[in-house]
Amino acid sequence: MTTSNVFFKASLVAASVAVASSAYSAGFALNDHSATASGTALAGAAASGADISFSYWNPALFLNATETTVYVSGAYVMPSMEATVTEASGSSAFGAATDLGTDTSTDSVDDTLVPAIYFAKPLSDSTVAGVSLNVPYGLSGDYGDEWAGRFHATETSIQDIALSFSLAHRLNEKLSVGASVQLHQAEVVLASAVGVPGNEGDGKIEADATGYGYSLGALFEPVKGTRIGVGYRSEVDFDFEGDVTYTDVSPTLSGAAGLVDASVSDSLTFPSVLTISLDQELTKKLTLGLTAMRTGWGSMDELRIDFDSSQADSVLTFGFEDQWFYSAGLTYDYSDKLILRTGVAVDSSPVTDEYRSARTPDGDRTWLSLGGTYNVNDMTSLTFAYTHVMIDDVSVSRDGTGEDAARGTLEADYESSANVFSLAMNMSF
Fold this sequence. Notes:
Blueprint: H1 3-14, H2 35-38, E1 69-89, E2 103-105, E3 112-122, E4 127-142, E5 155-170, E6 175-196, E7 199-220, E8 226-233, E9 236-247, H3 251-257, E10 262-270, E11 273-281, E12 286-295, E13 302-307, E14 314-317, E15 323-333, E16 338-347, E17 365-375, E18 380-391, E19 394-399, E20 409-428
């Protein structure tokens, strides 16, 4: 295999990292599946008796419905990320490395609307069937084709939509259980510059896949006013299939490097999530919520791309580590009409310093949340929440060796944050 062939394949594979900065949650998880839960920063997420939206973290909580219920939620995520490149150069595969200069990107991540829908139908006094539609993972960002790190990444977009069918059953006054099966549909769009500075084009991968998962949950109420919940969402295996297309690639480069449009495939395992929560009444009006959530990011250790052409498989290391999320929150029943909430959370990033890249400029997060519910009448309530996410400043340092031999060097500093506004309507009939 020629040096140039290695160069172009590795440049393209750099675009195949299905992870970029999702400024809301660590990694590329989306955790706004309930405006109610967001009001307390997910405190008590697997144990709350507020409404059926908490079934995302624990399917046994569909038992919160005592009659046919619909819950519709939407979160508008407004991320901000400033990437300041202090040094960047193209690959030295064809001789001396080319200096790509320095610049600052301030609009590389996009605002995103995250929807969630739940439907619950009691089958008896002790059994409830439920259906839900969620977006467990997603991001969208584009550095543009002119930024100094374009050989490391330009566009990244990923979306996972999950349709779940659940059943929850109350075994006795103290113990309830639930389970669901899930159908996942994921799409990925990934792009980067290919070639060398002054003689370059663009490579883009578009692929999709279907996966299957499940969740299990239990709720234990040892005494009145104390609820302990545990929920588990399984890993989901995806076998992505799609196409790679090239634009603005000269015939010379296309011939020398084998840059031809082709089919591609790769496999990814999205992580499992274990949620443990406490919902404790402190007084008749005040409730404390606590949550510990472990995400099995270690399942995403690497990405292996198979090109349906003369190009050999290429590998890119993620090196993600399993991480914990912790939150605490309070819910206050201000009146019969109004419920108020607040919470704080610490969300640890799965990205290590060794493997942090332009597609994974991820840092630890702190959430500050507040929200409330207004009961319009006995059948309808409206819920709102606001979360401010503070993200630790991080640096990307890629020295142009090893996996980056074909992409060149990149030194960049990142400052990120996010604001999230959530609204929901709960209707029973």
